[in-house]
Amino acid sequence: MTDGVDWNSFTQAVFVIELLIAGYCLYKLVKPFLRSVKVAFATGGLYFLTMLVLYVIPLYYNAFMAYALGSFVAFVAMCGMERRNYIQKAFLAVTYFSLRWFTATMAELLYDKLYYLVSNTMWYQENPTIFMQFMVYACVCALRVAMVLVITIVAICCIIKSYVCKHELMAKRELIMLVLPPFLGVIGYQIIHYYRNFYMSEHGKPPEVYDMLLLFYCAGAVIVVVILIMLYQSIKTVQEEKLANQLLFTQIDNLKRHIGQVENLYQDIRSIKHDMTNHVLTLERLYSGNQTNEAKDYVRELKTVLIETMGEVKSGNPVTDVILQEWKTEAEKKKVRFQCNFHYPTGSNINAFDVSVILNNALQNAVENVGGSGELHISILSYHKNNAYMIEISNSFAGNLQWDTENELPITSKGKKDSHGYGLNNIRKIAEKYFGDIDFAVKNEEVVLSIMLMME
Q1: 357: domain CATH number?
Q2: What is the pTM of this model?
Q3: What digits encode the pLDDT tens for the residues 30-42?
Q4: Are residues 228 and 327 in the same domain?
Q5: Full residue range of the structural domain in which residue 136 is found
C-alpha cells in the first residue's frame, strides 16, 4: 500500500471480476444448448471456480494451459450433468476457449498500448502523484474489462442467434469442421507469439509490428470463428428448408393419391348403384320362393361388399375417410386397436388439404411410435369447443422423450432428420394458419397430441 492506495488488492479484485465475467459469458453461451438453466449456471460457476483456484494456488502454469484446463472442466461438467450430445458440448468448450483466449489477448495488447500512451503524455508527466497514477491505472483496467465483456458477448450473441438447430445431435464431421479453424488460429497465434518473445529476448522490448500483427490476427480469428458458425448454420437452414419443401411435395402427392382413391370409391359406388336393381330382384325371388337361408347369405355377402367399398370410417369427408381408413388398416396390421371418433368440420373455413396434412403426419407418428406393455392402441377424436375445432390423437407409449426447449416439442429419435422430424412442425404451421396451436403431453404411458384450429 502506497499513500493509501493498495495496488495489489485492486489488481486482484480486477482479476476476480474478469473471472466472474468469463464465467457469465460461458453461461450465456451454453444456456440455449442445454435443457436446464441450472446446468448452464453450474457450468459457468465451475469455470469461474477452476480459474480462481488456478490463480490462487502457486503452481507453475501459463495462461494458455489455464484457459484450456478451465474449458475442459466446463466440458466435463456439462457432460456429467446432462448426458447427451457430447460432441456438441465439445464444440461449445472449444469455441469458448478460442473466444476467451483471443479476446483476452486483444484486450491485453490494447491495455498495454493505451497505458503506454497515457503514461507518456505531458499531462501524466506533470501530475506524478501516486493517486493520479492509480486513477489512470484503474480507468485503463476498467476499459480492458469492458472490452473483453463487449467483444465476447457480441460474438456469443451472433453465434446463438445464427445457430438454429441447438438441440439437434451434432455429428463428428461437424465438430471437426467447426473446431478446426479455432485450432489452427491458436497454432498461428503461438507461432507469432514465439517470434515476438524471441525478438524481446534479443532487444528487450517487443517490436511494434508484431504487436499490431498479433492484435489484428486475434481480431480476425474471432471474426472467422463467428462467421464460420453463422455461414454453416445458414447453409444448414437452407438444407432444412429444402427438406421441408420436399416433405410438402410428398404431402401433396399423398393428397393426390387419396383423391384418386376417392374417385375409385365413387366409381365403385356408381357400379353398386347400377347393379342394385338386380340385387333387389334377386332377393325378391329368393324370398318369394321361401329360400330364406339363401336370401340371408346373399344379404350378408352384399353387406360385406358394401363395407369393403365404402370403408368402415365415416368422417363426413371422402378425403379424410380414405386417410383414416388407410391408417386404421396400417394399425391393425401391427395388431394395434384403432378407435376413431373423428368428424370433419363441414361448412367451416378449414379445408380438406390442411386436415389431410394434420392427419397424415399425426397418425404416421402414432403408428410408428406406438408401444407399451399392455394393449396397444391409437385413438383419434374431434370436437368443437366454442369457436375452436379440436383434434386429439393419442397412442400408447413406453419410453422417454427428449424435448426441444425452444418449441416445446419432442425431438425425433431417429438417427437423422427426415419427414418424422418435421411432422409436428408442419402440424403446428397449419394450426397457426388457423390462429391455433398444438400441445404435446405424456401421461399414464400415453402420448396425446392436441391440435386447435379456430373456425370463422
Answers
A1: 3.30.565.10
A2: 0.61
A3: 999 998 899 999 9
A4: no
A5: 7-244
